[in-house]
Design a protein that fits this description.
- The chain has 13 helices and 16 strands.
- The chain is α/β, with parallel strands linked by helices and 367 residues long.
- It folds into two domains: 264 residues, 3-Layer(aba) Sandwich (Rossmann fold); 91 residues, Rossmann fold, CATH 3.40.50.
- Iron/sulfur cluster (SF4) binds next to helix 12.
- The site of iron/sulfur cluster has 14 residues, from helix 12.
């Protein structure tokens, strides 16, 4: 079993990153100068992104090591244009330019279909071809709560290696087990969790910022995530994908060693996502195989409905929504492009996923 390090950023982000890496053997234990290296941040949206100073520090350390063949790669929710937008707004496009590092929009990539060894739900997974053109992946997620998976840390961040439609398929077959199958198929060489500015109460977007001012690092994604979940005060029952991964890969969590700060000292009770408090009484959600991005957009949309304008609003989302239910009583709204409009719906909120203000606008337009 390996070691997971915890380093506080009290003396700066780069010193903390160096400390976190030294505590697990140093960066050169995981990558060599002549390796082709992919850096995988979490840029899924415009908030709650991997801290750019941390990421820049990592680029500098790789440069010091002599690594010349480095790329940054990510695919966000929605389409390739959304990913471009995230690259621009996050400052990562500028960062990549500054260090002349290719920034790859994986939503424009071709995929390679890989067989999953001992699959839980997916025999094959379509993964961006660039993943197989590098020697090492350094996974750099940010610590957040997640309305569908409990938390999002290292294992969940790997989902950004999928191309377009494959992300939706993960939701169709069951997200937690599909995440395990993906991580069985692709393993990062190193995981560095940005726990500087984290997110609680809601996630992966629309939550509250919580500053833990620290960095976690470790070789094994599940070990890092186990320590991360403990820090966030989440049990394994609340983080199903981690639980399934641990069972599938016989990870002995009692053997994980922690270096640096003590777990008890840095632990915090993260505010969990309370779905029932986010959904007004007059709104009923009917979801079948919708992406987390769409559900997240809907939950954000509901925050902007200041007062109920109708007694009974039914919101449908996902490509496999039960058409029979569309004949149910009340006002019926199709949410998202893949929820097919024209089957008895009263309104359609377009987008993949829709913008959070659009539900309010569409409801007002149809009043
Ligand atoms: S509309 Fe929503 S559920 Fe459908 S593919 Fe887009 S994000 Fe996913």
């Amino acid at each position: 079993m390996g070691t997971v390090s915890i380093a506080k950023t009290t003396n700066g982000i780069k010193p903390a990153l160096i400390q976190a890496l030294n505590l697990i053997g140093g960066l050169n234990r995981f990558v060599a100068a002549n390796d082709r290296i992919m850096l995988k941040p979490n840029l899924n949206g415009t908030e709650g992104l991997t801290d750019i100073s941390l990421f820049e520090s990592l680029i500098q350390l790789l440069s010091d090591l002599g690594a010349k063949n480095v790329i940054i790669a990510e695919s966000t929710f929605g389409n390739a244009d959304m990913t471009d937008m995230c690259f621009l707004k996050s400052g990562y496009a500028e960062l990549a330019k500054k260090y002349t590092i290719p920034l790859i929009n994986l939503n424009r990539s071709q995929y390679i279909e890989k067989e999953v060894a001992r699959p839980l739900v997916l025999k094959k997974i379509r993964i961006a071809k660039e993943v197989f053109e590098v020697d090492k992946i350094i996974n750099v997620p940010i610590m957040k709560v997640h309305y569908a998976t409990g938390v999002t840390l290292s294992l969940k961040n790997m989902k950004g290696l999928l191309v377009g439609e494959e992300k939706r398929r993960f939701h169709e077959v069951g997200l937690d087990k599909a995440i395990v199958d993906l991580n069985t198929t692709v393993e990062p060489a190193l995981n560095i969790v940005d726990s500087i500015h984290c997110m609680e109460r809601m996630g992966p977007r629309g939550g509250d910022r919580v500053d833990l001012d620290m960095i976690l690092a470790g070789e094994d994604a599940a070990e890092v995530d186990y320590v991360g979940s403990q820090i966030m005060s989440y049990s394994l029952e609340e983080v199903k994908h981690l639980k399934y991964y641990i069972e599938q890969h016989d990870v002995d969590v009692n053997e994980i060693m922690i270096a640096g700060e003590s777990l008890e000292k840095v632990k915090r009770q993260f505010k969990k996502v309370q779905m029932d408090t986010l959904i007004p009484g007059n709104v009923h959600i009917h979801e079948k195989d919708a992406c987390s991005a769409c559900m997240n957009a809907l939950l954000l949309s509901l925050r902007f409905l200041d007062k109920p304008s109708r007694d009974n609003v039914n919101v449908y989302l996902g490509s496999k929504v039960d058409i029979e239910n569309v004949n149910a009583e009340g006002y019926k709204v199709a949410f998202g492009n893949c929820c097919v409009y024209g089957m008895g719906f009263n309104a359609h909120v377009k987008g993949c996923p829709p913008y959070p203000f659009d539900l309010k606008r569409v409801l007002e337009e149809h009043e």
